[in-house]
Write a structure and sequence with these properties.
Length: 829
């Protein structure tokens, strides 16, 4: 969205600069230089704009900054063009201000833009690879090679998902078998009916609904409709998909929808739509479709509907809203044959019951799923490769779920719980832990893996194996290609995440809440509220037995908390949306706390209060901080003697690091892993970090202003993993890096301005792998030929030629040429 408005502002700015160049002598040189920079900016903005990639918050923020500075430049250019040529002082003043803006835009072009373009290329490359792989497997399995599939492979464009394959796209899991068989004649009919509603004329067609019980495929149907060529053509690709959920930030969502619908960008620190913009109304951009997924209440929906000319809204919900929506399509459950086909795909990886299976028993299990696609996939995957006795046991458990409740969805949860009970102990516990995270939010892979390691005493490899098993059983969804991208021994989980269907989250909460409140192993707020739940307050005088505590609120002041006692808590997850947040005072009652997760979901960074509560966390081993203003550490900071891992994501760090005189090695004496990601104000690391001799892994990614590493970097004698990924402002590595005798893995990929490596890099005798893809190195040190331990180098094709000599001296070296996509013409398509 920001690229759209940045492009419009930049186009208008060029016109005004031309006027300045013609009319104003004193401003002419500055205006000409500014025009050259903006001319260079325009085509790249268009490429990002048309790439179709949903931008993460950090990149949206950077593009908002760009749009704001372009807007300021436009205002200056207009003033300069209108200024009298005889007003010398005024012209010089405007020229000086334009120079400052020109320098800012030039820095943005040099540092931020390459990272944006490469990120889009990488994202689309992964998308294309996944889709092509799916087509190839489909052809290899004997499916007819349709002309559409062949054309897709030839043109390297994403293949459209057919309506008949829609139920395969429930987005439940990664490795749970190949595409499901074509099912759902009723679904095909439903898709056509909803399309007719959306393309109809008249006031009653402004808002259209899709409703059905949880797990029936509503979201999948909505996404399939959005991908339909007729719908895309009708709305000229102006289709915007937003997930609402049970506890949305309504003002932020309204603001986002307004910008998308109206074409009016809201610049500045607004938390709601400015009245003057509402009065101006929307620009005429043609027909627009807004899809609101997972809507829970009429009051929320009423605030999110914009009744503007040409704007239509598709509402996806478990409920009907007859007072607001006249046309609603109610999604039907699968018939017997369709249900059996989908179940067999999940259980046997084929469309029918195999000859070796007990047909009667299979059909009995299918019947207990009551035609619900989600239940069929989850239960089918859980029984894959199991012996007949396990099948019989599952059938009995499913049938016993009938009498639990009169509610269809509660009966569904009990049936699906049977498949969870069949999991091994730790796998089942890890599944239940997933309910600790907010609905419809991505769960960072680092957070999840680390939490499992701490509370279930797992090695990282075992925790990852459980993640893959849950994915294979359709109990969670890994991001595209996450299993392959995170499975390497030196891989980073940065930017990888997990999602879970809201019905599966409900299932985890349903199973976790069977015990009384104070006795639960997981104390979880199921949805965002303004304060703590009342039943927690009623039970606050008794201690809570919870091992995991998860809280989801808005702003919390000191008076909003009440004291509670958590003597067994090992994980505390604090989710919030606010500019100020007072840390809970009951952290003092958590002597066993090992993992603390702080995630801010608001649009701006949060300032934390009550930082003194950290002094009681003697056993804290892991700290995840996201979108927080990290305060300067005082000299009196109490050491966190057991803290091993620190993750700083989208944080504001400069104020905490500038001029810091704290001895980090004394504050974090056992710190072994430091991860810094998308901290865009990070210019340099403090030299005191080089005194933390316990550090074994440092990962710095997407920090676009990081220009250098400390000269004393070689003091980190225990360092084994160093990632400096997507840091385009970094121009050199310190010479002392060659003293890191234990270093095994070096990642300098996408460091676009890194021209040379230290000549003595060959001293890193334990180095096993180097990733230098998408770098601009002029050469590589000759000393690298002596790295006998080096077994794997990832680089671009040109760089591979420079490794030929080293390859002759290192017999086991494997040079992997990374795919290159520097031609960006296809992004516009």
């Amino acid at each position: 969205m920001d690229t759209f408005f940045a492009g419009e502002i930049a186009t208008e700015l060029v016109k005004e600069l031309v006027k300045v160049i013609r009319r104003t002598v004193l401003c002419r040189p500055t205006a000409e230089q500014l025009k050259r920079n903006v001319d260079a900016l325009l085509p790249i903005i268009q490429e990002i704009r048309h790439s179709g990639v949903e931008l993460p918050q950090a990149r949206q923020s950077q593009l908002s900054d760009l749009a704001e500075h372009l807007h300021l430049a436009l205002e200056l250019a207009r003033k300069a063009a209108a200024s009298s040529r005889w007003n010398v002082y005024r012209s010089m003043q405007l020229a000086h201000r334009m120079e400052k803006l020109d320098r800012w835009i030039a820095r943005w072009l040099e540092r931020q833009m390459p990272a944006h373009v490469l990120a889009d290329v990488h994202h689309l490359r992964v998308e294309s690879a996944v889709r092509l792989d799916r087509i190839e497997r489909h052809l290899q399995n004997g499916a007819p090679a349709t002309a559409a599939a062949a054309a897709a492979m030839t043109m390297m464009k994403p293949a459209a998902v057919g309506v008949a394959q829609m139920m395969e796209g429930l987005e439940l899991g990664g490795g749970g078998g190949e595409a499901a068989a074509p099912v759902g004649a009723a679904v095909r009919v439903g898709k056509e009916r909803v399309k007719e509603m959306l393309m109809a004329t008249g006031g009653s067609a402004e808002v259209v609904g899709i409703c059905g019980i949880g797990g029936s495929g509503k979201t999948t149907l909505a996404k399939e409709i959005c991908r339909d060529p007729r719908i895309q053509n009708y709305f000229s690709d102006r289709i915007f998909f937003e997930t609402v959920s049970q506890s949305p930030n309504l003002e932020s969502l309204k603001l986002k929808l307004w910008e998308q619908i109206s074409g009016n960008m809201v610049i500045g620190a607004y938390t709601q739509i400015p009245q003057w913009q509402m009065a101006l109304g929307a620009r005429d951009k043609g027909p627009t479709l807004i899809v609101l997924d997972d809507v829970w209440s009429l009051s929320q929906l009423e605030q999110l509907i914009f009744r503007l000319p040409g704007c239509k809204t598709l509402v996806v919900s478990r409920f009907k809203f007859p007072t607001l929506i006249n046309n609603t399509y109610e999604l039907e459950l699968l018939g017997e044959a369709e249900a059996l086909s989908l179940f067999c795909q999940a259980a046997f990886e084929q469309q029918s019951i195999p000859p070796t299976a007990d047909k009667k028993l299979v059909k009995q299990v299918v019947a207990e799923c009551k035609g619900l696609p989600l239940a069929l996939k989850v239960i089918g995957a859980s029984l894959r490769s199991q012996p007949p006795k396990i099948w019989a046991s599952a059938k009995n458990r499913l049938s016993r779920g009938e009498t639990i409740s009169d509610s269809h969805e509660n009966k569904l949860l009990e049936r699906m719980a049977a498949s969870i009970e069949c999991l091994s102990g730790k796998v089942r516990e890890c599944f239940l832990d997933l309910g600790s995270f907010p609905e419809d939010k991505k769960i960072p892979l680092d957070v999840l893996i680390n939490m499992w390691m701490e509370i279930h005493d797992l090695d990282e490899e075992d925790a990852f194996a459980i993640l893959v098993e849950l994915s294979n059983k359709n109990l969670l969804t890994l991001v595209k290609d996450a299993q392959n991208r995170a499975g390497d021994i030196y891989s980073s989980y940065s930017e990888l995440s997990v999602t879970q269907h809201d019905v599966l989250r409900d299932l985890a909460l349903h199973m976790s809440n069977r015990e009384s409140l104070n006795c639960r192993k997981r104390l979880i707020m199921p949805r965002r509220e303004e304060g703590l739940p009342r039943d927690w307050e009623r039970n606050k005088d008794q201690q809570f037995e919870a091992q995991i505590v998860s809280i989801h609120t808005g702003e919390m002041r000191e008076t909003d908390w009440f004291q509670m006692y958590f003597p067994k808590a090992e994980v505390l997850i604090l989710n919030f949306s606010s500019g100020m947040y007072f840390l809970p005072p009951f952290m003092d009652t958590m002597p066993k706390l090992k993992s603390l997760v702080l995630i801010n979901y608001s649009n701006s960074s949060t300032v934390l209060q009550n930082l003194s509560s950290f002094t009681a966390l003697n056993n804290l081993r892991s700290l995840w901080v996201e979108k927080i203003v990290v305060p300067p550490l005082p000299r009196t900071t109490v050491p966190l003697k057991n803290l091993r891992k620190v993750f700083l994501v989208q944080c504001e760090l400069n104020n905490s690091l500038k001029g810091s005189k704290v001895d980090l090695w004394m504050t974090f004496p056992r710190l072994s892993s430091l991860t810094i990601d998308h901290c865009i104000d990070l210019n340099e690391l403090p030299s005191s970090i080089c005194e933390v001799s316990s550090l074994e892994s440092i990962s710095i990614s997407n920090c676009h202003d990081l220009s250098e590493l400390p000269h004393e970097f070689g003091k980190l004698g225990s360092l084994q993993i160093l990632r400096i990924y997507a840091c385009p402002a970094l121009k050199r590595l310190p010479q002392s890096i060659c003293q890191l005798k234990r270093l095994k893995y070096l990642d300098i990929s996408q460091s676009l301005n890194l021209r040379d490596l230290p000549e003595e890099l060959g001293n890193l005798k334990n180095l096993e792998k180097i990733d230098m893809r998408e770098c601009s190195l002029r050469n590589i040190p000759r000393s690298l030929s002596s790295l006998k331990s080096l077994g794997h180098v990832i680089c671009d094709e040109e760089m591979a030629l420079l490794w030929k000599e080293a390859e002759r001296h290192i017999p086991d070296l494997r040079i992997q040429i990374a795919e290159q996509c520097y031609n960006l013409d296809w992004l516009v398509e």
